[in-house]
Amino acid sequence: MSVRTVAVTRIGSLKATDEAARGRIEVIDLPEPDLGPEDVRVRVAYSAICGSDPHLAEGFFGTDVPIGLGHELSGVVEALGPGLRRTDLAVGDRVSGNFLRFCGSCRPCQQGRQQFCEHIQEYNRPGMSETITWHESQLYKLPHSVSLLHGCLLEPVSVAVRIADKTRVRVGDRVAICGGGPIGQLALQVMARYGATSLTMIEPIAERRELARRCGAEHTIDPVTEDQEGRAREITDGRGFDVVIDASGSPRATRGLLDLAAQGGTVVYGAMYPTGHELPLDLSRYLYLRELTLTGLFVSPYAFPRAVQLLPHLHLDEFTRAVFPLEQAAEAFEVHLSGRYPKVVLRCNEFEELV
Ligand SMILES: [Zn+2]
Ligand SMILES: [Zn+2]
């Protein structure tokens, strides 16, 4: 059996103006993995394009094509392996999940650091596909009030939860977020529920600043036309933000964020950065005198159960307005790159929505 799947079929930047050098996204037939004893086959409903997908097209994680894409998805359980241990899963259940399976046996897994699992890639399968076959440990059932369309956002929500974890925020802390893409917007909503104050979105695109306002931002800063540091001082009575989150991944933005942080504050670099990008760091100024904590994250283990709980409470409609059929994946990626919508979603199979 083979399944229609979105894949990178030529490595290169999707934005390259020279057609011969441009990366290529196509829908191709890939073999459907066997259903192992503890596996679950899911008929995919929706699969969202992630900001990291174009980096995969550039060969960030490897250059052997085809590279199947898609790790933000929802669907309906179609078949259960014969040795399933979970008793709460049945054919017809609406689910989402973690694209990574953690083995549970390697040293990092044993130490509670599943993000460094030595077998993390074994079940990382493309989700922009008619079906996906996952290990039972990767699946999460969607709450009754959450549609399949919203359910495909579980993985990005889990990233926002992990970002919140890494901030070690306390109720009432002043929080700024740089970058109004989907992760930044979701992190903003999560931080708002966490009791953040002076909640500020730093973002050059006006539509994204407005979206942040609608989703709970008290202030916005345009880093291009405004004096970012001056505005931050104004908003925080000259003290700076207790928590600063970068969700932009923009090398230009990374440096200035240290100057927005309050004494003893935390700066989370919560995006994917170009390999080799270096951040000059005045140790005396930022770590000695101001005791800043700088941190980052790779993936989001342990965050999924809480992300499932949050799904019904988040404003997600604006992230699911642009929906394309699977076969139009190439057009969908063009629209994604245009930045016209906060998020672009592929419909992989038609299901009747019950909510
Ligand atoms: Zn993603
Ligand atoms: Zn492991």
TrEMBL record:
<dbReference type="InterPro" id="IPR013154">
    <property type="entry name" value="ADH-like_N"/>
</dbReference>
<keyword id="KW-0560">Oxidoreductase</keyword>
<feature type="domain" description="Enoyl reductase (ER)">
    <location>
        <begin position="23"/>
        <end position="346"/>
    </location>
</feature>
<dbReference type="InterPro" id="IPR050129">
    <property type="entry name" value="Zn_alcohol_dh"/>
</dbReference>
<keyword id="KW-0479">Metal-binding</keyword>
<keyword id="KW-0862">Zinc</keyword>
<dbReference type="InterPro" id="IPR020843">
    <property type="entry name" value="ER"/>
</dbReference>
<dbReference type="Pfam" id="PF08240">
    <property type="entry name" value="ADH_N"/>
</dbReference>
<dbReference type="InterPro" id="IPR013149">
    <property type="entry name" value="ADH-like_C"/>
</dbReference>
<dbReference type="InterPro" id="IPR036291">
    <property type="entry name" value="NAD(P)-bd_dom_sf"/>
</dbReference>
<protein>
    <submittedName>
        <fullName>Zinc-binding dehydrogenase</fullName>
    </submittedName>
</protein>
<dbReference type="InterPro" id="IPR011032">
    <property type="entry name" value="GroES-like_sf"/>
</dbReference>
<dbReference type="Pfam" id="PF00107">
    <property type="entry name" value="ADH_zinc_N"/>
</dbReference>
